[in-house]
Batch of 3 targets.
Target 1
Amino acid sequence: MAAYKPEEVNPCLIEAINNGDVESALAMYEAGAAFVTEEGTVTGSDSIRTVMESFIALKPKISLVAKETVQTGDIAVTRGNWNLTGTGPEGEALEMAGQSVEVVRRQADGTWLFVIDLPNGAED
């Protein structure tokens, strides 16, 4: 699973998460990427792995409506609206939604990866 256009990064990540595939989800991030959680910003593969593992433990199903992609050279900003259904820690049904903003960068091999992922970055 690889993104060859900036607007493909989110769908690749969503596919990995929906399939419960932590390794494929993590592969969508640069080694020093930043991911913003409710608790704060985490950086680097190990920290993002921890976030992805706890996120995938919810057995989520995510959908995304892409809103915009703005690209200049090897950098792009994407944003979209996402919805998630899953199972909470006590087995309860879980529903979440947000408006995301992401910074992605073209890699030397032509693929695109997250540099900054703000799942709730477009919300007030």
Note: Residues 6-118 form a domain with the Nuclear Transport Factor 2; Chain: A, fold (CATH 3.10.450.50).
Target 2
Amino acid sequence: MYETKYHRASTVSDAAAMLKNADDGKLLSGGQTLIPTMKQRLAAPSDLIDLRHIDEIAGIMKQADGSIRIGAATCHADVAANEDVKAALPGLADLACTIGDPHVRHMGTIGGSIANNDPAADYPAALLALGATIETNKREFSAEDFFTGMFETALDEDEIVTAVVFPTASNTAYAKFPNPASRYAWQACL
């Protein structure tokens, strides 16, 4: 890997300031895509701004209107195991349970996944189907307006995903074709 400066943000505004002051800064949440990309020398950011320790963007909350707000730094395993998500959005809980393998589910985050917008990722389709709203440090997007193309979103360079809000939709399901070559655990959710 190339030389990179590591920064550990404690608030969203702290992270935004670090990102603004970096020559070519990248946000690090779970790192499930960024770190392997850096190891392969396909990316060489000047600065990594770690979002994993920002309490304000972690966790899952059922809101007064019944919607579910999931902080961007919430890992897939927490989405899969959360009782409010299972009750209000069973398809989303099932989706989170089938992402990658246990390591990926415990490190990868919903915010990192949607900000990367990999066409092979599971969350973008769910956000679109469920009519989710993406919150950032600057504004809110409907899922339709957020995803603009493969690996592309409507995020500005200094914008940080902070949460995703899902309206309740208890009659949901998620299915995908397993890829045996990937060796990912298909239904082993821990």
Note: The mean pLDDT is 90.
Target 3
Amino acid sequence: MKNLVAGVLLAVATVFSANAQKKEVKTVTLEQTKGEFTQKAITLSEGTYIFEVANENVGHNVGFVLAPKGKTDQAHHIKNAYVTKQVENNTTGHSNEVTLAKGEYVYFCPLNPTPQYTLTVE
């Protein structure tokens, strides 16, 4: 009987632990046209995100780079924010999950190429 009770308690604790560890993942949808993103600035709350990037008739593959503001060289890119593969013309791609803390970031596409736009996490 003690083993049965211990087993049930372990199962209940495991379920509660798994539910407590689930994180909400939100999707940020972005669109690129020739030489620009249509979203010029983004404000988000701290959390975990997937970036979905649409290539709207750019005419060639595009990508996505997210980096801390003022640190845009490749060494500082947030690698999980890269799209998982280049986004072909008139298709949509996505990044892996990215957890963002408060601060200022920039996003851009070196393949398109686009200006650097501001992403603020409050």
Note: The chain has one domain: 25-121.
